[in-house]
Amino acid sequence: MVEVDKLKCIFEAANLAPSAGNLQAYQVYTVKEEGKRKALTKAAYDQEFITQAPICLVFCADPERSAERYGKRGSELYSVQDATIAGAFAMLAAADLGLATVWIGDFDEDKVREVIGAQSARPVAMFAVGYAAEEPKPTPRKAIEEIFHGDFPQTD
User: Is 152 a member of any domain?
Assistant: First the structure.
């Protein structure tokens, strides 16, 4: 299990994430109950680590909240950005606390919404949180020159 004080730190980090217009147009659902984690596993096309971890966080965009100020762009983009930035902050906080996480983006939104009981929120990312059972090798990454464009800092 993940200690309550560590979960609180993760939640506080997510709460500090920047958001469009400081609206925080997102909601986070905490899923601890094993039956619901199993249902999320099915909704995520049998990604078993969701059931294996003691907790799953579901980050949802709140399109209606963002649309109030920003219209269509807010509902379609800014709310999704808000939710994913908050998720990234939570994930970094979890890692800093010695926890392991797995970002899950491949899932059936409607099934996830049903499991968590969300009405208008749009699930955009989930992640399993717990203590690592193993330490996988890092995956290969592109060279930074392949990603960053424009004025690139030169090394001496």
Answer: no
